[in-house]
Design a protein that fits this description.
Helix content is 34%, strand content 18%. The protein is built from 11 helices and 16 strands. The chain has helices spanning 40-47, 62-75, 86-96, 112-120, 166-176, 188-191, 228-238, 244-276, 295-301, 319-328, 373-384; strands spanning 16-17, 20-21, 79-83, 103-107, 128-132, 148-154, 179-183, 201-205, 219-223, 281-285, 308-313, 333-334, 344-348, 351-352, 355-356, 363-367. The strands form 4 sheets. It has a 7-stranded mixed β-sheet with strand order 3-9-8-7-6-4-5, with helices on both faces. The chain has a 5-stranded mixed β-sheet with strand order 10-11-16-13-12, with helices on one face. α2 packs parallel to α8 (244-276), α3 runs parallel beside α4 (112-120) and α3 crosses α7 (228-238). The longest helix has 33 residues, at 244-276. It starts with 15 loop residues before the first strand and ends with a helix. It binds pyridoxal-5'-phosphate. Pyridoxal-5'-phosphate binds next to α3.
Amino acid sequence: MTKQNEIVGWNDYTRSYGGREIRTINPTIQSGSTVLFENFEDMKLALEGDYPGVDYGTHGLSTQKAFEEAICKLENGYKSYAFPSGISAITNTLMAFTQSGDEILLCDNAYGPTGRFCHKILEKYNVKTTHIESSIGSEISKYINENTKLIFLESPGSNTFEIQDIAAIVKVAKKAGIMIIMDSTWATPLFLKPLDHGIDIAIQSVTKYISGYSDILMGCATVNEKYADQFADYFNTVENYTNPQDCYVALRGLRSLKVRLEAHQKSAYEVARWLEVQDIVDSVIHPGLESHPQHSLWKRDFSGASGLFSFTFKKAYSTEQIGLFVNSLEMFALGFSWGGYKSLLTARTYKRDGKWVHDGKHLIRLSIGLEDSQQLIADLKQGFSVLD
Ligand SMILES: Cc1ncc(COP(=O)(O)O)c(C=O)c1O
């Protein structure tokens, strides 16, 4: 840049020093609203909507693109988009592909706010949502009518861990020309690549394992070639913006996802297998255990298990007794979300498909972090001693 404004200055953003280019392994955090055009002709292209590059900050700068390209590769997708949270990725994807008169089939074990958005917001625009069984397969055909626009799956569900038969659903959906979106946060792209199985859009709450430290909120959606233009059109119209600092953190998380996930998986299996043989415990609800009702489906489609699962007690303890147990724990922090280095716990009852899950008993959901699994087990053991 040659022009200088004496009052505010005008920095020429340089990437070299001492005559040498400054290069780093990781992308720079590029932040900005205005993107400078090289010349008038480029600006004209942008005004006409034909500029091949990024013409404004809301479309995402190089840091956002670095994350999106990396996750897209991992998902075997056509294009990925970053969103400021997982729920934002979900709601925007649903908005992108529905219009008045459409009907959505939503699996009953989907993340609560996904259903809430469908009913509270989409219904205002005359988009109807029908709940389908959490462990649905080819029976999905009975729900399909001429208005059915898309199927939204979450497998396993992040509280109750039912698995859907992806192959059977894809077969029905393809025949009927209906798109399938899947929230695949539990597995991450390392343990399941939904697009390889015929799903059209894979969604991740990056907040969880991908970022890994419970220090950011972020989401992403990866689309296949078939629906890429429609998604691009929506994304460029709403100008959704995810800040570059979070994309940087998410990209850094992606680099260590494999080793972290293996550690989460190993510890979670150790805790789950220990729980399975405790007298006080009734069911351990972990898709990777042989006792899980859809274990064979999980084995067919998934290449690993993350660190989130639930268990129930044999006795139907009162809420107060559950509170005593939970409050006695020292290793498990109480809080929403999951997938970080710190072990977390939630405890509540659930209804699925119109029925109480596990007779209305509390499901104790554990997000196994990166602590020593033996210490986690010892903590649960002392916690059990306050019951009975
Ligand atoms: C399965 C699942 N999907 C999506 C989300 C939403 O993610 P975020 O917290 O990033 O909005 C959550 C959050 O807990 C979740 O459990």
